Amino acid sequence: MFNLSEIGNKILEQVVYYGPKLVVALITLIAGLWIINGLVKFIFKKIPRSKMDVTLSSFLRSIISIILKILLWITVISMLGIKMTSFVAILGAAGLAVGLSLQGSLSNFAGGVLIMLFKPYKVGDFIEAQGHTGTVNSIQVFNTILKTPDNKTIIIPNGALSNSSIVNYSSETQRRVDLNFGIGYDDDIPKAREIIQKIIDADNRILKNPAPQIAVAELGDSSVNFVCRVWVNTVDYWGVHFDLIEKVKIAFDESKISIPFPQRDVHIYNH
Question: Can you state the angle between helices 54-79 and 4-45, rounded to 10 degrees?
């Protein structure tokens, strides 16, 4: 039979032995997490005032926080009296198993490191990748977070980004606006060209060098199509794009220049 008094004594001994250690370990864990969060926030409050890139700041913040928390957990476990040699061996075996099962996460981590090293984009850039378009909101350890123009949040794994094509619309200070305008076959081509040129000359956002280009690009099925190419600063791209379309339409209407729509002539024969 079990001796209840002996069992009770052994339980009491364990409680007396491990109880204070467990309390101290819990206090250390809670205080440590609080200190780590406060320390990381304090350090990186100074980052925007320095010359460190915002993208690098965000990435380092994640890395430092993870490393400090791992060290804290190791400290707490050692305070409980668990031998670290055995723990390290168990941790190594568990790490191998977890590593094999989390190959995707490790790939994303490696992708994040590559992105930080080669910087195909940074926080604030407007990019297109993995079928999505948006402004880079943050670059984290495993993911990059985009904000779309209509304020949706898109989370893309870094592994996929580091191994695929990326279109960065913000990497250059200047961009070219390409527009097409069609006029009717009966309309005056030199007059239409002159109207477009005047609109371009009146817009101070359009750069003089490289020079704007206006040319007849195509004789379409129902229209003579002009191509209009102008260079602008990247920040002015969409403003110039929309304004040119509107101003050309208004100017064509005032000058009685038609903008034809696709149409067909149908001939009916009676036999």
Answer: 160
CA end-to-end span of the chain: 116
Q: What is the pLDDT of residues 86-136, one digit of tens each?
A: 666 666 666 666 555 555 667 787 888 888 778 888 888 999 998 999 999
Average the pLDDT over 51-68 and give the result.
68
The H or E element spanning position 123 is: none
Residue 106 and residue 49: Cα distance in Å, rounded? Answer: 32
Domains along the chain with CATH numbers: 4-101 (1.10.287.1260), 112-168 (2.30.30.60), 174-254 (3.30.70.100)
CB 226, CB 182: distance < 8 Å: yes
- 182 has pLDDT over 70: yes
Which amino acid does the sequence have at 254?
E
pTM of the model: 0.61
Strands, sheet with 224-233, edge to edge from the N-terminal-most edge strand: 174-183, 224-233, 213-219
Quote the CA–CA distance of 60 and 159 in Å, as a whole number: 18
Q: Give 257 or 76, the one with higher predicted confidence.
A: 257
Q: What is the pLDDT of residue 16?
A: 61
Question: Which H or E run includes 186?
Answer: none
In sign, the C-alpha dihedral spanning 155, 158, 160, 163 is positive
Residues 123/139, Cβ–Cβ less than 8 Å: yes
**SS3 labels along 38-87:** HHHHHHHHCHHHCCCCHHHHHHHHHHHHHHHHHHHHHHHHHHCCCCHHHH
